[in-house]
Structures are given as structure tokens and as C-alpha cells.
Amino acid sequence: MMLAETLHIDAERALNLFYGTETYRQLSDHKYGLQQMSDTEL
Predict the structure, then answer these.
(1) How far is residue 19's CA from residue 29's CA, in Å, rounded to a whole number?
(2) Where are the domains of the chain?
(3) Beta carbons within 10 angstroms of residue 33's beta carbon
(4) Cβ–Cβ < 8 Å for 34, 27
(5) CA 35/CA 29 separation, integer angstroms
(6) Distance set, CA 8 to CA 1, 4, 19, 37, 39 (Å)
(7) Tens digit of pLDDT per residue, the chain (42 long)?
(8) Neighbour count for residue 40 (Cβ, 10 Å)
(9) Is 24 within 8 Å of 18 (Cβ atoms)?
(10) What is the end-to-end Cα distance of the chain in Å, rounded?
């Protein structure tokens, strides 16, 4: 929702954008340790 609000787009579009990012790929891989970071840090 933060992405949708920041970009002034709907939630579905924001999710589609997010799931296509390198950040999401790294979140899915525990070796990067991003799971411990807050939403705003990411």
C-alpha cells in the first residue's frame, strides 16, 4: 500500500510492480537478510 500511495496508483498495479523488482527477488532469498528490515528501509 505504501508503494501505491507514493506512486498514486492502485494496489494491484503496485503489487505487479513490486513483484517484478530486484528487491522482491532478494526478499525471497534469505541470504540477503532483507526479511529483517522494515518496510520503510526497503
Answers:
(1) 13
(2) 2-34
(3) 10
(4) yes
(5) 9
(6) 10, 6, 18, 24, 18
(7) 999 999 999 999 999 999 999 989 998 888 888 888 887 887
(8) 6
(9) yes
(10) 14
